[in-house]
Amino acid sequence: MELIKRPRRLRGTEHLRRMVRETRMDKSSLVYPMFVTEGSCIKEEIPSMPGQYRYSLDRMEEELARLCEVGVSSVMIFGIPVQKDEVGSGAYAQDGIVQRAFRKAKELFPQIYLIGDVCLCEYTSHGHCGVLCGQEVDNDKTLELLAKTALSQVQAGADMVAPSDMMDGRILAIRKTLDEHGFEHVPIMSYAVKFASAFYGPFRDAAGSAPAFGDRKSYQMDYHNRREAWKEAALDVEEGADIVMVKPAMAYGDLIREVKDRTNVPVAAYSVSGEYAMVKAAAQAGFIDETSVICEMAAGAYRAGTDIYITYFAKELAKCMDEGRIG
To answer: Average pLDDT of 152-178?
Structure first.
């Protein structure tokens, strides 16, 4: 049979397959989400996320050292306070759990790039992402507190802030506040396209941030919507976002690609707690090869257009990149 075009020619050896690979990954694009909690001598496994832990500040160093060893140099820190109130004051307190974590991490590992998740849900007694007016979140009253939270994190040592609340106008409010205080150089990574997703369940267990009533569908996005995703991303870029994020990652590759094609800023994707938990559960049951699935999920996100991959599997992926299994 005479065949001039044979696509299989470029698949013949591992060397050749890597040479012509269209999607390439690097450890510098990985971000590891980490939970810090009040107390001492605490390394507490999260039941719904096997292999993930809540660390007290005196145990945080262990995990940061492990990340450095495998070459993961970016960490997003989430705080779990002891006390919560109606206005989430622990989120912007100068001595809050996250603020103290940033100071300690910056002191111990100055080479690690620290990212602050900016939201109130972990700090409010009602579990919603903003100030309440009756049973509804008051968008505009929340903006001031989000800006205070971002500023407090940067003052404590955060290199970047990442607002995840989904309030309208929060990027502009944060940008103005940072600039007014001399932090024009600090970038904002916006959770621009964040859906009201069932994939977040284990995170709410990990951070104790489930809403006490109702849900977050009045501010997080309806997962049926595609055009709205682009609208949210475009608005955040216009307001000053330096990076935009799509969350979750696995089921939203079409929107990662669309945002990538239609914006001129880097695109992040968050492989969320539910994705992690499903892989862990299936692997423990013997149904899948965990490492292969982790690599395939990551490749899918990067192939869709991801520049920055936020994942609880960051350490595993870094090792796989060293071994040539992915990258």
So the answer is: 96
